[in-house]
Amino acid sequence: MIDEHHEELAALYALDLLEGAELAAFETSLAQNAALRALVDQLRQASTALALEKSAPPPSPALRVRVLASIDSLPRAAATPAPVGVSQQPLAPVVSFNAALWTGWAAAACFALATAYFGSHYFTARTEATLLRNDAEFARTESQSLQQRIEAERILNSNYIAQLQKSGDLANLKIAKLADLLGNSPQAVAIAVWNPLSQEGVLTVEKLPLLQSDQDYQLWVIDPAYKDPVSGGVFTVDEKGVARVSFRPSQSIKTAATFAISRERKGGSSSTPQGPVIAAGTL
Amino acid sequence: MNSAPAESTPPADVHAQNEADAALLREIASGDRDALARLYDRFSRPLFGVASRILRDATEAEDVVHDVFITIWQKAAAFEPARCSALGWAIALTRNRAIDRFRTRRRRHEILETSAPDDLGYDETAPSAASSSTDLWQKEKATAVRRAVTELSSEQRNALELAFFSGLTQQEIATRLHEPLGTVKARIRRGLLKLRDLLADRL
């Protein structure tokens, strides 16, 4: 039985709309749940129906030629070797040699051969460049996804999440990855895990800049029900920029849409952020 | 007098068609160039339609379709028929590639400023006559899909079309539709589940 929350995540995943920690957490669930994987496959297949809804014009006839020319220039991974040296075409009739007549044909043939040669090289180079670019993009995406998954799994496996699970089902937890807004700490990682039932959460940060002794970081929960952000409390980081804090906002949160971290004077702000907002993330 | 819709595609035919497509992919995986040419004749039009609708540029859409067929040529052995149809797989490849290109081409704020939410379709007057069995097959599928999509609420349809074709994030879709994020997520979930149920055995 798949609950509504996971159905929703499956639909968003099928449409490639999950990102960051939410994506990593869902892929972790997906790896452990065959029913969820089947649902994702069904929804992905249903989503492709949207592509067939409207009648489409055909591409230009030149595209077919280009595609086939490109694959001819690529090595075939499991291809059957093409017959060599055996022509399937009927032989042309032999005619007497006429130099004047054949000069034009020879020039045309040279031109055709040159065109074919350079055209083939062009398509080969273009296709290889495309494939290399795709491979690089794929590797980069995989790397990012892997890093995010490791981060999310580490956090989800931590004792802090175990504490949260005591008061609520894991399925109810909402996860937000906060991104650096100022550009001065791009290595910083901040993940907020929020349990709307118990009204408490855990914030884990790493590689945030050390603060001066008269400063604190302050967590804010942005709930559309309130005009101002709701404070989630203040915290500092150790010399490695690490902090793991449990938080309970100062007011009841109806819909936690966004989490943000600001840099404040020691003790934090009692109303709205007074210092710069350094990171924010949406559930 | 009511008559049965002549354009409806019997599920048995759909399964046979899907099996034929899967067989073509197996032939491609073994290096059969002619099989790729046949697959091109079957799939190029819907794939070009997807890429055009996302990119709104015929030249770029053709580049994407070209790259997708190269990928199919090289990765056909990776296709898993148990998970989706060959057409579904090819559409997913095309969509991902077109959205990547779209996102590279424009920064997000430019997308929000220049994309028109109610104009995600391409020219409906484009030629679409059923001139071959392939065209007829696609036309029949399109008819079944169109009928299913009209059974969605307009809110669900808008959310799904933006999600599939726009390349926007969840939050950007919510902003575009002037709706809370939770509402948009719920519409996507309900719409996609309904579409799955309506199109069972028809894709």
Structure commentary:
The complex is a heterodimer of chains A (283) and B (203). Chain A is of the alpha+beta class. Chain A has 6 helices and 8 strands, in the order H-H-H-H-H-H-E-E-E-E-E-E-E-E. In chain A, strands 5-4-7-8-1-2-3-6 form an 8-stranded antiparallel sheet, covered by helices on one side. In chain A, a hairpin with a 7-residue loop joins strand 4 and strand 5 (230-235). In chain A, helix 2 packs across helix 5. With 203 residues, chain B is mostly helical. In chain B, helix 8 (170-177) crosses helix 9. The chains are: A alpha+beta (283), B mainly alpha (203). At the A-B interface, helix 1, helix 3, helix 4 and helix 5 of A face helix 2, helix 3, helix 4, helix 6 and helix 7 of B.
State the helicity of chain B in percent bands: over 70%
The rounded Rg of chain A comes to: 30 Å
Distance between the amino and carboxyl termini of chain B:
30 Å
On the 0-100 scale, what is the average pLDDT of chain B? 79
Note the overall shape of chain B: globular
Spans of chain B with pLDDT under 50 lasting ≥5 residues? 1-10, 107-131
Number of helical segments of chain A? Answer: 6
Average predicted confidence as pLDDT of chain A: 73
Helical residue percent band of chain A? 40-55%
Largest sheet of chain A: 8 strands, antiparallel
Succession of helices and strands of chain B: HHHHHHHHH
Order of helices and strands of chain A: HHHHHHEEEEEEEE
Shape of chain A: elongated
Question: Count the strands of chain B?
Answer: 0
Output the radius of gyration of chain B. 18 Å
Q: How many DSSP helices of chain B? A: 9
| Strand ordering within the main sheet of chain A | 5-4-7-8-1-2-3-6
Structural class of chain B, please?
mainly alpha
Oligomer: heterodimer
